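Here is an idea for our session: we take a single protein and study its fold together. To get us started, please write out a protein record for me. Start from the sequence, derive the backbone structure tokens from it, and show both lines together. Go ahead whenever you are ready, and we will take it from there:
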Amino acid sequence: MNFRTLLCCAVAGVIAAGSAMAQQAQPIVIKFSHVVSVDTPKGKAAEMFKKLAEERTKGRVKVDVFPNSQLYKDKEEMEALQLGAVQMLAPSLAKFGPLGVKEFEVFDLPYIFPTKEVLRSVTEGPVGQGLLKKLETKGILGLAYWDNGFKIMSANKPIHKPEDLKGQKMRIQSSKVLDAEMRALQALPQSMAFSEVYQALQTGVVDGTENPPSNMFTQKMHEVQKHATVTNHGYLGYAVIVNKKFWEGLPTDIRAVLEGAMNESTRFANAIALQENEDALAAMKASGKTEFYTPTADEVAAWRKALLPVHKDMESRVGKETIEAVYKEAAKLGFKN
């Protein structure tokens, strides 16, 4: 082999080594897509995870957060995750029923969580963790539960009593339980993507909806709803999920750091959710654009009486065992359904 050939081989080797080093230096990119505003509890928690993940991996991981349905709408994002087009989502718990894990719809049942303490005992205990395990057959890993809050009803007419929603077109997430909830109130459920709700309310395609105050406020729904009632009838929360193949393919040390960042982000998310909703409710009241009503004890009892039969009706879908497991958690803390 002559000198020129040896030199060419050496140069080629240096180029190849440099290329390999450059590839190794490229950060691992996590695309984190969600459908709500940056200034909601979920939006802020996603930004917190990004900050912690990038700092603690010293740049080995880059988290690109896409809020407000920038990449995918409600019905599109789950398939995108399974296909690997995005790596991380935080969909509402109602999304897992259409995916085939119907037990998650227990979270949609009206008045099933009497307090935040009961809710936390479910999400952090064997019931909630067992539900996350069921996602693995779908190519998904569940990392955490993030709170938003308890929902209120809104419409363009006063809604003090359950019967006030009769005949009203009410937007819901795609959920058989939420569909049954609205039908129990003699309302007309309309399933649609979250990103489309404001315009639907503005144009009268739907008459009202249900949301935690933070979602209602950040999407400016109070500008197109004349009335709202603080029913606190249902819970809206999220599961932070990742593509299973992607997550399990991460270097072990990186995955451990990201799990720690997720744990801290979860504590942050759940700590701010209550305050964010209180602040949003106060801001909407101050705006004067929506009239808010707080039901009396007797009126709350009437709402519960109208909606609790949905639990029994949904046993065949959600699973009687799952519903009773939540009841048992509530009973441990002194509550009965």
